[in-house]
Amino acid sequence: MRSCSPPTPICSPACSTAVTNDPSGVVTFVVEAADPADPLPDFIPGQYVSVGATLPDGARQLRQYSLVHAPRDGRLAFTVRPVAATADQPAGEVSNWLTTHVTVGDNLAITLPFGDLTLDTAASTPVVLISAGIGITPMIGILEYLAAGTAQRQVLVAHADRNPDIHPLRTVRRDLVDALPNADLELWYEQPSGDSRTGTLTVSALDLPAEADIYLCGGAGFLQSVRAQLTAAGVPLTRVHSELFSPDDWLLR
Ligand SMILES: Cc1cc2nc3c(=O)[nH]c(=O)nc-3n(C[C@H](O)[C@H](O)[C@H](O)COP(=O)(O)OP(=O)(O)OC[C@H]3O[C@@H](n4cnc5c(N)ncnc54)[C@H](O)[C@@H]3O)c2cc1C
Asked: Which of 94, 99, 144, 169 to mutate to test the pocket of ligand 1 (most atoms within 8 A of CB)?
C-alpha cells in the first residue's frame, strides 16, 4: 500500500482505501480522509460527490459520482462505470482513468456531497426506486441506508438494463433487497433472461404502493419515459424525485 499525502484540495483530500471490481465492469472506490484532522463530510442517502482527477496530460477534471454506502465512519464510496469508445465517440476520460489507474493508497479530491435525489430519512412512507443502467448507484446508497437501519419501510425496487451481465452491482442489490423485511424487486432486461421481464420498464406492471416517494435515475430517454408513465398512472410529480446522469437536465423541462 502506498502512503497517502494530501493532493491540492478541491474540498477534501481523500485517500482510496478499497477498490472493488464488479462482474459488470463497474468499479467501486471507498475513500477516507487523507488527513484525519480534515474529515470527509457527512451526506444524505442519494447524494453524490464530485471527484477531482488530474489526468496524464495535466488537465484537472471533475465528475460526479453517487454515493453507494450508508453514511458511516467518515468513509465515502462511489461506483464508476467506464465509458467505452464507440464508432462515433471517444472513450470517457475520467471514468476510464479512475477505473484503470486509481488503486488503494492513491489520492483523490472530493467535493462536498450534493444533490436533490435525497431520501427523506424521517418519513415512514413507502419508497419506490426506479433506475436504468448506472442510474442504479443512488438507489444502492438509499438501500444501504435502509438496510442498515431499523425502519420497516415498504420498498419497491425496479431496474432496467440490457442484460444481467452488464447490470451494475446486481448481486449487491439482490442482497440488499433480501436483507430488507418488506422489499420487492422487479427487473427488466432488453434481452430475454431467466425470470426477469423482457423489454423496457413498464410502470403499469408495477404494484405502486399508495403515497410512495418515488426515486428515479437513469438517462434522459428513460427518465422522460418513466415520468410520463407515472403521470399517466395518476402519480403527482411532486412525489417523483429524478436525477439525470448528464448535464443535459434541460431536456426534462
Ligand atoms: C449527478 C450525477 C451523478 C452521477 N453518478 C454517477 C455514478 O454513480 N457512476 C457513474 O459511473 N457515473 C455517474 N455519473 C456520470 C459521471 O459524472 C460522468 O459523466 C461519467 O463517468 C463520464 O465521464 P468521463 O469523463 O468518463 O466521460 P467524458 O470524457 O466526459 O465523455 C462523456 C461522453 O461524451 C463523449 N465525448 C467526449 N468527447 C467527445 C467528442 N469530442 N466528440 C463526441 N463525443 C465526445 C464520450 O464518448 C462520452 O460518451 C453521474 C453524473 C451526474 C450528473
From this structure: 94
The reply to whether ligand 1 has any atom less than 6 angstroms from the CB of 188 is: no
The number of the ligand 1 atom at minimal distance from the alpha carbon of 89 is 47
Instruction: Look at strands 107-110 and 197-198 and give their pairing.
Output: unpaired
137 lines ligand 1 (CB under 6 A): yes
Check residue 4 and give its pLDDT.
60
pLDDT digits (tens, 9 = 90+) for 135-180: 999 999 999 999 999 878 999 999 999 999 999 999 999 999 999 9
Q: pLDDT tens digits for 174-196? A: 999 999 999 999 999 999 888 79
pTM for the full predicted model: 0.93
Instruction: Kindly state if the Cβ of 64 falls inside 6 Å of ligand 1.
Output: yes
